[in-house]
Predict the structure.
Amino acid sequence: MSFLPYGVAAWLFVIGLWGVVSSRNLVRTVLCLTIVQSSTYLLLLGIGYRTGATAPIVADVPATSKLVDPVVQVLVLTDVVIEATVTALLLALVVQAHKRFGSVDPADLRQLQD
Amino acid sequence: MSRPVRLGLFVVSGCGLATVLVLAFIGLPDFGSAHELYGAVVDYTENGLRHATDVVTALNFDIRAFDTLGEEFILFASVSGVVLLLRQLRGEDEDAGQQKGIQEHAFAGASDGLRLASLVLIPVIMAFGAYLVFHGQLTPGGGFQGGIVLAAGPVAILIAGRYLAMKAVAPKRLVESADAIGAAAYALIGLGGLIFVGVYLKNPMPLGTPGHLLSAGMMPLNSVAVGLEVAGAFLVTWSEFLDQTLINSPGGGAGE
Amino acid sequence: MTVLQIIGLVFVAVGGGAVVFVSEPLRQTIVLGFYGIALTFVFFTFQAPDVALSEIVVTGIGLPLIILAALRKIRQHEELRRQREGKE
C-alpha cells in the first residue's frame, strides 16, 4: 500500500501522454499536458513525506519535532504557478495556429508545406 | 503515419513506459522515510538563523533565493511570449478593417445577484491577497499564492459586468509596469545584499523577532516583489486574451 | 499511509482519467477544476499547506480563466471567418 502515491503518479503520467497523443483538438492537448505536469508534483511530494511528521511551519511547534522535508515543497510550489503561465503561452500558440490554418485539429496543420 | 497506426504504436510503447516507471519507482525509498539530510538540517536550524516561522517561504525567498530569481524570470519570459504572439495577431486584424471602438460592455447573462456578490467579494479578495503576500514568512502564503489572489480582484470587477471599470482599475500600462517593477525589484534587492553584505541575494536587513510581521530580514520585501510580479503577469496575460475578443467582435462580444 | 491519503489518491487517479477522457475542452475545464480540488486535498494530507494553497489558487482562478478566454477567442475567429466567407 505504500506504493500507492508512486503508482498514481505513473498512472497520471501515462494517461496524460495518451491524452496528448490521441486528441483531435489542440486545446485538449494542452489540458492533458497539465495532467502530466501534476504527476511530477505528486511524485516529488511523495518522496519528501515522513510518516508521523507535521507541516514545516514552526510557529507553534518546536523546531526539533518531526517535520516533513521542505525542499521538495519549494520546488513544487513555484512549479505550480509557472505551469499556469506556460499553459497560457501554449494556448496563445494554439490561437495563432487557429488563425493561420483555420482549425484546431492537429491533422490539419500540415498545410504549411503547401 | 495514419492515426490508428500512431495510436497502436503509442499503446505498445506506453505499456513499456509504464513498466519502466513502475520498476523505477519500486527502487525509490519507501513512502514515508524521506532520506534527505539537507531538508532535515534546514528544518532544525532555520528558526535560529533566519527568524522566520514558515520554513518553506524561508527556503523560497532567502536560502534558495537564487532559484526563485530564475523561476520569476521564467514567468516574465512566458508572459512576454504571450504578449508578443497576441499583439501581432491584433495588429493584423486591425489592418483588415475590423476595428471597432470599445463599447460599454456588460455581461448580458450577469444577474443582479451575481453583480452584488462580485461587488461584495472584491474588497475581501484584495484584502486576502495582500494578507497572503505580507504574511508569507509567518504562515503558509507568500508572493506566489498572494499574487494570483490579488490578480483575481480586477477579474471579479469584470465578472460584475463592467469591462470599462476593469480597464480603469487595471489599465494596461499600470499592469505591465507592475509586472516589470516586481521582476526588477527582486533582482535589485539581491544587489542590496551584494552591496551591504558582500554576497548577492544574502540577507542585509535586521532579522527581528520571529512571529512579528516585519521579521526575517528581506523576506517580506522579496515576497512583495514576487507578489507584484505574479499579479501583473497574470493580469497582462488575461487581458491580452480578452482584449482581442472584445475589440474584434462585430457586435458585442461578451454580451450574448 | 493514513486513510485520508488513500481516499485522496484514489480521487486524484479517477479525476485524472476523467480529464483525459472528456472530449470537449469546455467541459474539460470544469473537470479540471474538480481535479485541482482533489489534488489540493492530497497535498494537504501530505502535510504541505503552502503547496495546497498554491495549487487551489492556480487551478481554481488562474487556469480556468485563461482557458475560457482562449476558447472564446478561437470561437470569435471562427465566426469572423464564417462572416468573411459569407460575404464573398
Remarks:
- Helices of chain C lie at 3-21, 25-45, 49-87.
- Chain C has a mean pLDDT of 90.
- The two ends of chain C are 66 Å apart (CA to CA).
- Chain C has one domain: 3-87.
